[in-house]
């Protein structure tokens, strides 16, 4: 049952509104507050799905109440109740975030329709937030070690913003998982996340890949083609291994970040883009800057937020959890019976020097599932997981 709070100083109007709303298929639980101060106290103590608030009230007017509600619980839709002389103020409250306003005396159908629509919107907001919290299993970050908790906490703070993030760390540590979690928990999650592996694209093609080209701009350019920045418009672009990008392409990326504009290869026409940029590298960009291979101005544009992903050797407490996680996935993928790992086997694996990090651990788990006994022992680890 949806819970509604009605804040109205005139008792007669409160009774009428409550009767109209509460009688709607008996699906609404309506509570009353005779002024804004009492209403705010109730809002602090209870969770409401919708609030109806009068504009003209003693002690605290509806505009101030709305402002306080948006500070306390911004997700709750608020319908303002306006007298004939309050229409300009009602419009002002819409700009402040009110869902709608109802004029006195209220039209029955308009009132009920507005209440239903506001409650539907609240439900959509709740569902959307729940979906964002359920980050795709494919890109789930496994582990509860202190370094991983720190990264997850940073992501939760940074994801809702449009701040650029530079993700650093050795190969195989899961830098792309951080990027996907940042996108999935952001306001851009419904728009695309476009990935570009800068190390895998030849230097002579990287600009065309990122910014597109026009027909005839170079040999083989048989038609106009949009680039990755355009494809990611309104969403996120993830520039993986950005330390391998050519200086020429770096200059164009810098312009895109500074001006939110790109131009296709062979064209002087500017194209506006609205893209959040995430970047990752396994290189020491400070060293690359010193040796003239990376632009310092681009580094500072990208590194608004720095997230350092730890090596597996720095988060050994997560190895048992990762083994269980990978074993379940691999057994399902391979169509084989799930095997268990003995305490001795897990201890042995925790002692290894994981130069290949998470990627290497996954390969070793797969090898042990295929070659090891029903319960994988320390002996199996010594035989099949040796470096």
UniProtKB/TrEMBL annotation:
Annotated GO MF terms: ATP binding; DNA binding
Keyword DNA-binding set for record: yes
Positions of post-translational 4-aspartylphosphate modification: 54
This protein's record includes keyword Phosphoprotein: yes
Response regulatory domain span: 3-119
Keywords, in A-Z order: ATP-binding, DNA-binding, Nucleotide-binding, Phosphoprotein, Transcription, Transcription regulation, Two-component regulatory system
PANTHER family: TRANSCRIPTIONAL REGULATORY PROTEIN (PTHR32071)
Name of protein: DNA-binding transcriptional response regulator, NtrC family, contains REC, AAA-type ATPase, and a Fis-type DNA-binding domains
Taxonomic source organism: Wenyingzhuangia marina
């Amino acid at each position: 049952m949806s819970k509604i709070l009605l804040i109205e100083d005139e008792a007669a109007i409160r009774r009428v509104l409550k009767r109209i709303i509460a009688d709607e298929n008996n699906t609404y639980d309506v509570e009353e507050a005779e002024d804004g101060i009492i209403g705010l106290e109730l809002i602090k103590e209870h969770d409401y799905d919708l609030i109806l608030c009068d504009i003209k009230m003693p002690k605290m007017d509806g505009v101030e109440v709305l402002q306080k509600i948006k500070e306390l619980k911004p997700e709750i839709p608020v319908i303002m109740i306006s007298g004939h002389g309050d229409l300009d103020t009602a419009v002002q409250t819409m700009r402040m975030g009110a869902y709608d306003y109802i004029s006195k005396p209220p039209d029955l159908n308009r009132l009920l329709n507005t209440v239903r629509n506001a409650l539907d919107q609240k439900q959509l907001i709740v569902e959307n937030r729940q979906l964002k919290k359920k980050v795709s299993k494919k890109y789930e970050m496994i582990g509860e070690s202190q370094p991983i908790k720190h990264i997850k906490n940073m992501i939760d703070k940074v994801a809702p913003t449009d701040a650029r993030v530079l993700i650093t760390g050795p190969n195989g540590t899961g830098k792309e998982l951080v990027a996907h979690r940042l996108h999935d928990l952001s306001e851009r999650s419904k728009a695309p996340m476009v990935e570009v592996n800068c190390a895998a694209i030849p230097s002579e093609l990287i600009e065309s890949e990122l910014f597109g080209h026009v027909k005839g701009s170079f040999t083989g350019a048989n038609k106009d083609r949009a680039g990755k920045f355009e494809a990611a418009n309104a969403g996120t672009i993830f520039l993986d291994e950005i330390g391998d990008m050519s200086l020429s392409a770096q200059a164009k990326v810098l312009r895109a970040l500074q001006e939110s504009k790109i131009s296709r290869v062979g064209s002087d026409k500017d194209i506006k883009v609205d893209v959040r940029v995430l970047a990752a590298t396994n290189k020491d960009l400070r060293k690359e800057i010193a040796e003239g291979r990376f632009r310092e101005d681009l580094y500072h544009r990208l590194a608004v937020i720095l997230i350092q992903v730890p090596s597996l050797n720095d988060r050994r407490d997560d190895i048992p959890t990762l083994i269980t996680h990978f074993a379940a996935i691999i057994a399902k993928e391979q169509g084989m019976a799930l095997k268990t790992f003995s305490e001795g086997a897990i201890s042995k694996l925790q002692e290894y020097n994981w130069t290949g990090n998470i990627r290497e651990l996954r390969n070793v788990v797969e090898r042990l599932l295929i070659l090891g006994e029903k319960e994988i022992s320390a002996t199996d680890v010594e035989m099949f997981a040796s470096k």
